[in-house]
Amino acid sequence: MATLLDVAVVQHPLVLQAQERFNAAGFDVESAKWGRFPTVVSETKVPNQNTQSLTRIEQPLWTGGRITAQIDISEANRLVARDQIREAQFNIMQQLSAAYFELLRMQARLVVADANVVEHSRLEELIGRRVSAEVSPAADRVQANARLQQAIAERIQIQRARDAARLALQQWSLAQVSAARTVRRIDFVRGRTGGVDDEEFVARVLAAAPQRQRLQHQLRVAQAQRDLAFSQGLPSVVAGYQYIWGGTLPTTIDRGTAYLGLQFQPGAGLSALSNREASSRREDAARQELAALERDLGQQTRTLLAEIDAATSQLGPARLLLKGSQEVVESYLRQYQVGRRNWVEVLNAQREKAQAAYSLADVESSRDQATVRLMIFAGEFGPGRFDAVQH
């Protein structure tokens, strides 16, 4: 899984798309910073067949915070774009790991299904010999064959589910995958002191979550937009120099003139005030979205911890159930041969044995998948830390 993730978190189209947005945001920052530099305006007029060209250079001295706000917006958007890269990697790791463990689960269930078909074939041969020897009724052979066909159909369904899981894994990993390797060990520590401290883990998840960091920077964008809306209602002070080319001018007017100007463009009507109110509401909305995400992340973390606890507590009983069901099949088969059990009880015991094996595979997969998902949430499993899961 580590090899697949190493490639996917770098080469997946979702990551490449986010990387390009980040690169574009970097140029937006450069563009905003150019606002501190002088601007050059050149225009040509033709008054009364007297062609004149005007060149004007203006250096902003004070803009009421407009340029600073535009730079803050672009820098915050660049941080948002950076967080989107990590968020894309986070989503890919979630999807790829889920597909990987689903493939592992289907592989384990297929092993059980193959063994179940083999065992039913053995039972059918056994009852066939007894029916041929007229020791058992023909109905027992019919029942055995029906159960065998049921086991074969079940195996086909599991094979299809395995193939679907493999295709999903190939889609997210960008690689051809024939089979998933069994996970031998997951280095997972529930709490820093080794105890059960759900709130401590929730805090770790909140600190590592790329979605939360993105929303925090989006809140910073909203705050900068509010500052920009406020500055748009203030005048600007510029220092400038203009020069008139060509044409004829009155002797009292110099072709070159330096000046200090006051510029004020509040917009149509009360649009500046409306923009300020809209920016304030967007800031409040961003703050509420961040609070909602924090609650959702906390709930997801507690749910995953509960899933891990539930699956861990079920492992022991599931293993004992499988062992017991195996012994029951052997016991019922011996008792059947001496007339103390009927054939249906033997077949039912074999079915319960297969169901117990399926259940064990499901519980193990559920525990491992929830554990790895929680580690991804907490930033303990990701680029540079994929060795936390050993195969």
Provide structural commentary.
By secondary structure, the protein is an alpha+beta fold. It has a single domain (2-42, 65-234, 276-379), classed as Up-down Bundle (Outer membrane efflux proteins (OEP)). It has helices at residues 2-11, 13-33, 66-132, 138-173, 198-208, 210-231, 271-337, 343-377, and strands spanning 39-45, 52-62, 185-186, 236-245, 256-263, 389-390. It has a four-stranded antiparallel beta sheet, with no helix packed on it. A two-stranded antiparallel ribbon has the order 3-6. The radius of gyration is 36 Å and the shape is rod-shaped.
Which key features would you list for this structure?
Outer membrane efflux proteins (OEP), 8 helices, rod-shaped, 6 strands, alpha+beta, 10% strand
Give a concise summary.
The chain is an alpha+beta fold and 391 residues long. The chain has helices at residues 2-11, 13-33, 66-132, 138-173, 198-208, 210-231, 271-337, 343-377, and strands spanning 39-45, 52-62, 185-186, 236-245, 256-263, 389-390. It is rod-shaped and about 135 Å long.
Please name the CATH topology: Outer membrane efflux proteins (OEP)
What is the overall silhouette? rod-shaped
Mean pLDDT: 87
The count of helical stretches stands at 8
Query: How many strand units?
Result: 6
